[in-house]
Amino acid sequence: MEDGTAHGVAWECIRAAKESVKKVKDLLVDPSVESAEQSAAILRGVEVQLGCAAAVLKTTGMLADKEMRSAVEEVQDEVAILARFFAGADKLLTGWLGAVQSKRGGYTEQGRAVPLVLVSKLSVEA
Predict the structure, then answer these.
(1) pLDDT in the model for residue 85
(2) What is the rounded radius of gyration, in angstroms, for the C-alpha atoms of the chain?
(3) How many CB atoms lie within 10 A of CB 20?
(4) Share of the chain above pLDDT 90, in %
(5) Distances (CA, A) of 115 to 18, 28, 103, 121
(6) Residue 117 phi/psi, 5° resolution?
(7) SS3 (DSSP) at 51
C-alpha cells in the first residue's frame, strides 16, 4: 500500500471513529433501551475503526505521525469517558434497583428487617 493511500485510509478510519463517538453522545441525550443498544453497536464499530487505523499505522511505519497519534488518542480518551459514564450509570441503576427490591421485600438497604409500624386502633364500619 502506498504511503499516501495508507495515510488517507488511516485518516478515514479516525474520522469515522470520531463521527461514531459523536453519534453515541447524541443518543445519550434521549436515553432508552434502543439508544443503549445502538450505542453498544456503534462503540463496537469504533473499536474496529481504531483497530483499522492502528493496523495501517503499524504496517506503513507512520506511527511517528504526531498529528495522527494525537487524533487517535483523542478518540480513545472520549471512548474512555463514555466507558466510565456507562459503568457509573450501571452501578447507579443496579444500586437503585437493589434498594427498591429491598424495601419492597421488607428489608432496609443494610439487609435488616424494616421496623414494624403498629396501628393503635382499627375500626371497621359496615
Answers:
(1) 84
(2) 25
(3) 23
(4) 21
(5) 53, 40, 11, 18
(6) -110, 115
(7) helix
